[in-house]
Write a structure and sequence with these properties.
Length: 125
């Protein structure tokens, strides 16, 4: 089994900063990419940022470019999202995502996508 555990959400004033972390653990053979998605109340889940674990290539939603930075620590199977200049419209539940290869403990490898439980980010004065 694979688990993604997120941390770092909370309440912050407009213009403030937060740093989210997501650690993957369990029966992991290789992580290809990790990312952050968010879902605001009444809206669909949307991509925020992704990073490839090997090469570190990044991709950002236009709405967060220049304000958010995604990074990874390959040795710790952890991805971070540094969020600066936060706006009220950034308020959402943020979900960690991992695209990886896992094993079942009996020699069978499989590719799958996993999600964290989500962490609330609220930007309000």
């Amino acid at each position: 089994q694979v688990q993604l555990v997120e941390s770092g959400g909370g309440l912050v004033q407009p213009g403030g900063s937060l740093r989210l972390s997501c650690a993957a653990s369990g029966s992991i053979v290789r992580i290809n990419a990790m990312g952050w998605y968010r879902q605001a109340l009444g809206k669909e889940r949307e991509l925020v940022a992704t990073v490839t674990i090997g090469g570190g290539a990044t991709n950002y939603a236009d709405s967060v470019k220049g304000r958010f930075t995604i990074s990874r620590d390959s040795a710790k199977n952890t991805v971070y999202l540094q969020m600066n200049s936060l706006k009220p419209e950034d308020t959402a539940v943020y979900y960690c995502n991992a695209d990886l290869t896992a094993h079942n403990g009996r020699g069978y490898y499989y590719d799958s996508t996993y999600w964290g439980q989500g962490t609330q980010v609220t930007v309000s004065s």
